[in-house]
Amino acid sequence: MRPSDDLFLLIKSLSPAEKRYFKLFTEQHVIGKQNNYMLLFEAISKQKEYNEEAIKKRFRKEKFVKQLTFTKNTLTNKILKSLRAYYAGSKRRSIEFDLYESLDTLEILYQKKLLNAFRKELKRAKKTAYQYEKYRILLKLIAWEREFNIRQQEKQTFAHAEKIMEEEKKILEYMQNDIEFQNLAEYVLLNLNRKLEERDDEKLAEIKKQMEHPLLQDEALALTFMAKLHFNSIWGSYYMMIRDAQKVYDYYKRMVGVYEERPLMLEARLSHYGKTLGNFLNACFFIHNMEEHKQTIDKIKALAHHKASTGDMSYQIFEITCHQELVNYMNTGKFREGVAAAYAMKDELEKYKDRLHASRLLTIYLNMGILHFVANNFSDALHWFNEIVYHPKADSRKDVQQLGKVLVLLVHYDLDNIEILENLHRSAYRSLKAQNALNPLEKLILHHFKKLININIFDKKAIVKCFEAFLEEIKELPKKSNYTSNSLGLTEVRYWVRSKLENCSFGEVVLSEMAKNKARKTK
Predict the structure, then answer these.
(1) Helices 270-286 & 225-241, crossing angle to 10 degrees?
(2) How many whole angstroms separate alpha carbon 495 and alpha carbon 9?
(3) Domain limits, the chain
(4) What kind of fold does domain 366-523 have according to CATH?
(5) How far apart, in whole angstroms, are the C-alpha atoms of residue 315 and residue 30?
(6) 35 secondary structure, DSSP code
(7) Packing angle between helix 225-241 and helix 157-195, nearest 10 degrees?
(8) CB within 8 A of 12, min separation 6: which ones?
(9) In this structure, are residues 389 and 405 in contact, taking their beta carbons and an 8 Å threshold?
(10) What digits encode the pLDDT tens for the residues 139-189?
């Protein structure tokens, strides 16, 4: 990134409310005509990409262009100053902001020898800093307390000095513990993320060795709120890597508990708490605890009404819950309710789709399509699968894109669009082959669809025979050496083929399998 882009990126990061506040903020210091800083601000705001030459050309008759670097630096400082003022009165104002303001207040009171007010402010600030575990700020407050103690010249001064030293020692111990767990989290989690796809025995042994660190053997050794979060996050991520779903659930549930045991910390870190609940949602799904999965979705949605919630929280809630809500409906067999929810989500999806990462958006489209498919809403299913196939960034999830192309064939077959299936089949085959992307499942599907297309639609025996062969090969597919277990769509296609042989709907087969699985678990 070029240094000259910094101001452009800062301006582009401003929300409409922040821009309005900046304009009001600058107007307070300008009489008469608009100042140079606002001229530059407005010009940069309108650019889609930063173009300094265009700025120089536009303002070539203005004196400030000759000192453009100075003017840009001044504008940057003015924007940051206005943001500090904006957040000082905002509900997004952080605890750190309050505490640093208290440090300024303490200095003013001390210099003016208003010692009674100083003592009260120091007591209040220390209480807040302890509540939120702001140990670095606590050290500064302790320094003020030491200064104040020396000034008192009372009999208790020496005893109080010893107390201050003990308190400082304890704070340093907590800080050290915090830092050690943070370093462990960065080291372990970075290694886990880097090696997830490199699962050889030597690297697994290396990671297991890392997990033998003395501090990771007992949560009681994590002395602070953040240390406890790091402890559980490290172990949850580790068990995710070795695919122990129950342990992933246990540690992520504990992370949620760490937050909920400390309501003040939860409020101060509401966004991160939401992300923690999102990780726990995945853990619930891994062990197929769909009841707690639904409860957690409701808990996340309730954050929108939390007193610490902001406008950005609405987007975060949608991003976490949209996909998971669809997954819940599919895995509990509540297809009709899921379809109703999918219709209700459309406006929000349209509102946020440009902010969602393409891979997340494609996954949502896939789940939307499958929900409509199992509910026999074929035209709606086709709409969502086509959204995947024709999405401009579908390459970000090629597996989803390829599955979308295959599922389009299934839907058209159910719609009896036999006359266009041949063209669709040819198009899907050419597209996937050109990308050298045909996996064993897709080859199998395209192979049997070619047969189905060429069978006389009135030859019921031939159709049944084709579907029987189709189902048999699907069952054998996981045994083949070139089959990968993470291939999408195997279960969905198998159930769809069964629906043709059992002369029932796709959804009925899914419900039947769910009932069997539930019966097996209760035995």
Answers:
(1) 30
(2) 50
(3) 5-88, 366-523
(4) 1.25.40
(5) 37
(6) P
(7) 20
(8) 45
(9) yes
(10) 999 999 998 888 776 656 778 888 999 999 999 999 999 999 999 998 888
